[in-house]
Design a protein that fits this description.
Largest sheet: 7 strands, mixed
Helix content: 25-40%
CATH class: Alpha Beta
CATH architecture: 3-Layer(aba) Sandwich
Order of helices and strands: EHEHEEHEHEEEEH
Length: 186
């Protein structure tokens, strides 16, 4: 039986492409039979790590991460790196990430930043013993239809196929890893 899979959209932009990837991934996860939920950083006033009250603003995310075996992180890529809001989320929820399956959905302006998630992936893998899904989605501006409108969607067949593939791999890893990862020492 599959456990819950959380999808956490990390952009703060009101019309962001990573949220479109998140929403589309959730629909594919549900088609594959997963129990899933979508969390959106835009709906929360999360303060930056280091501010004393910052941890109070992340309880929804901390609970979602702790209760999930798998987490998908749709992230914008800016200046060849994952945006600070995603890194801040991880810094504020640190130990909640321990022994999780993690996948990435990247929205970028161009093709040159496809390795941008590697620093975060390595940190999650080495610091928190996460299993990083080797298949991730990397979408650029041309992969979206009706860009920056209320009707924006994943417009290319290739991106929709990658999203579907990632969703199915995540569901299978969630089912397999749930019992396996639960036996690893914390």
């Amino acid at each position: 039986m599959s456990k819950k899979i959380s999808v956490i959209s990390c952009s703060l932009n009101p019309q962001n492409r990573s949220y479109v990837l998140a929403r589309t991934a959730v629909s594919y996860l549900r088609e594959a039979g997963a129990e899933t939920d979508l969390h959106d950083l835009r709906n929360h006033g999360i303060e930056f790590c280091g501010i004393p009250s910052a941890r109070e603003s992340i309880s929804e995310f901390k609970i979602a991460i702790e209760q999930s075996v798998a987490i998908l992180l749709p992230v914008p890529i800016c200046k060849f790196d994952v945006i600070a809001a995603a890194k801040n989320l991880i810094e504020l929820t640190v130990r909640s990430w321990t022994i999780k399956v993690v996948g990435f959905l990247c929205a970028a302006g161009g093709n040159a930043s496809y390795m941008s998630v590697m620093r975060i992936a390595n940190s999650l893998m080495l610091d928190f013993r996460c299993l990083i899904i080797p298949r991730f989605v990397y979408a650029v501006s041309d992969d979206f239809a009706n860009a920056r409108t209320d009707r924006m969607e994943a417009g290319s067949d290739e991106i929709r196929q990658r999203l579907s593939g990632l969703a199915h791999v995540t569901v299978e890893l969630d089912r397999a890893a749930g019992s396996l990862l639960g036996r690893l020492p914390q």
